[in-house]
Specification:
Blueprint lengths: L21 H12 L1 H7 L3 E5 L5 H12 L5 E6 L2 H13 L5 E4 L7 H4 L3 E6 L17 H4 L7 H13 E12 L4 H9 L3 E10 L4 E9 L1 H14 L6 H18 L1
Parallel strand pairs: 1-2, 1-4, 2-3, 4-5
Antiparallel strand pairs: 5-7, 6-7
Helix pairs in contact: 1-3, 9-10
This protein binds S-adenosylmethionine (SAM).
S-adenosylmethionine binds next to α1, α3, β2 and α6.
Length: 253
């Protein structure tokens, strides 16, 4: 039996809102392919940044609803028309999400820090002149600036703040965005990653990357940070020696 995802005929539209396209379908297909893991994950809070038509957040809500996960859904978009269209799409499928008109997740950090178990993002990733980034209306759906990375590079640190210890991030990227470079960047923040779906269309080569926090990667990242700060040794030894110096110094006071 096919699993429930949003039905295209029930997805609402507006001339200024991005319609579900190859990238949206690839992201939902990646979620479907990871369905068993997602159901086992039992996420409490799920967040989509840039919901557009609502096709992805609605599909995620339907998919997790099948497993009777008691998840809370939040979606943001910088384009106010997108929130109206997302509301209509969610309602047409009988599911609910809290919708917020904001830049990435601005204003949500205090409330959601460390709480998001699943984050999904199909960002504006097309390489464009920098002035097009953040333009009003439909242009904001694709304009990604230099190498298509301007918005992506702002989203990743926000994701790092909002994701819970068991949090997963699924993100759409293009070859031009340098997906393996993004994985290396996230490794420095303590994340492992895997390209869970790769799809070439006539126009682009899409990669869906899944990121998750990994204790070993975090330890390596912390070690690298400590040795960059010019610590006396390297690795955990350096960390321990710095800690003992700190407590010695405190006792001295
Ligand atoms: C490629 S579309 C994806 C839409 C939908 N998620 C999908 O997959 O069909 C990117 C979406 O991100 C929104 N967006 C662009 N920049 C944003 C920002 N800084 N903060 C929040 N949303 C943004 C756009 O308005 C657009 O709806």
């Amino acid at each position: 039996m096919p699993h429930k995802i949003a039905q295209i005929r029930l997805v609402s539209s507006h001339p200024e809102v991005y319609e579900p396209c190859d990238d949206s379908f690839a992201l939902v297909d990646a979620l479907l392919a990871d369905r068993k893991n997602l159901l086992g994950h039992r996420p409490h809070v799920c967040l989509e940044i840039g919901s557009g038509s609502g096709y992805v957040i609605t599909s995620l809500a339907l998919l997790l609803g099948e497993g009777e996960c008691d998840s809370y859904f939040v979606a943001t978009d910088i384009n106010p028309h997108a929130l109206k269209v997302t509301t209509e799409t969610l309602n047409a499928h009988g599911v609910h999400a809290e919708l917020i008109n904001t830049n990435i997740a601005s204003g949500l950090e205090a409330r959601l820090a460390g709480l998001v178990d699943v984050m999904v993002v199909n960002p504006p990733y097309v390489p464009t002149p920098e002035e097009e980034v953040g333009c009003e209306g439909i242009t904001s759906a694709w304009a990604g600036g230099e190498n298509g990375r301007t918005v992506i590079d702002k989203i990743l640190p926000v994701a790092d703040k909002l994701l819970s210890d068991k949090g997963w991030l699924y993100m759409v990227t293009l070859t031009a965005n340098d997906p393996s470079g993004l994985c290396i960047e996230m490794k420095k923040k303590g994340y492992e990653s895997r390209i869970v779906l790769q799809r070439s269309t006539e126009e682009e080569s899409l990669h869906i990357i899944k990121f998750w926090r990994d204790p070993e990667a975090l330890l390596e990242a912390n070690e690298a940070k400590m040795s960059n700060k010019g610590g006396s040794g390297n690795g955990i030894g350096s960390l321990l020696s710095q800690l003992s110096h700190m407590s010695f110094w405190r006792n001295d006071k």
